[in-house]
Amino acid sequence: MVRYEKADTLLQLAMDMQAARGGLSLGDIEDRYGVGRRTAMRMRDAVLRSFPQAEEVATDERIKRWRLPAGTLNRLVGFTAEELASLEAAVQLLDRDNREDEADTLAALSAKLKALMRPEVARRVEPDLEVLLEAEGLAMRPGPRPRIKVMVLEDLREAIKGSRKVRLRYRKRGMHQVKERLVHPYGFLYGHRNYLVGLHENPKANKVVLFSRLNIEAVEVLSDGFVRDPDFDLSAYAAQSFGLFQDEPFALVWRFAPEAADDDADFVFHPSQEIELQNDGSLLVRFTACSDLEMAWHLYAWGNKVEVLEPARLAAMVNGNRMAWPALP
């Protein structure tokens, strides 16, 4: 069994080497397979022995990389029912979260993969795929969801890819007046609402701002380009907030009651969180982020099972009202 598992891992590594156009380094192998340097070297050497057509990639780095030429493993690549079911589940998740354009793109990819399968393999996989999709069906998210403007999203994506300025016709929430905004589009954030992240063209307001996609009435993609701020990282920008709204981050300490501690220990409230189990069975959660209003919305769901210890502003919003809210079932 162990030998079969090793062969399977080496075949997967060979496929990864073919898929990586820039090649894989020893560090990449360590990270992808969770192994040490010596094991990574043995794995690389085994692939190079089995596939002598493997080549070292010339790069400007001091790190060596290896890849397999395109087409080397095409006859060996197959798709399992589990893999196709996961892809179908991703399509359903995107569709449920009101990201219909991305759902359509993944659905098209799924169809292409099925078209590549040999007929006899497809016939074997199809029944298992049906069962898995039925067993892992996704419940619809309760409550309303906004309609998206497909052309708006397509235009924004085109502008982001080409680093081109856009002129938005934008309506602020709660207002009927539509105003024009000249914006450098950077990317999207997805949550209970979906937002465009961009910079105002106006130098007086030249800071990163969020535009609700629901309130973007129309987009004009301009011929003028813009230079992206090299210091701006969308992932880092999103990670500094508890939700979508951005402000100055602050330190937080939440205490969850003993009867809720087991469930809460499995939650990832924020990437920077630290959890500490107390002697009385309660759980302290610490992290640094911003957007206290969104935190309050979330914490109300825990009822009287949570207490905010820091900061005082959030404690006033949550602790004084928590007894009026039902505890989690």
UniProtKB/TrEMBL annotation:
Residues 152-220 form the WYL domain. Residues 253-318 form the WCX domain. It comes from the Bacteria. It comes from Magnetospirillum molischianum DSM 120. This is Putative transcriptional regulator. Pfam families: WCX, WYL. InterPro entries: CBASS_pafABC_assoc_protein (IPR051534), WCX_dom (IPR057727), WYL_dom (IPR026881).
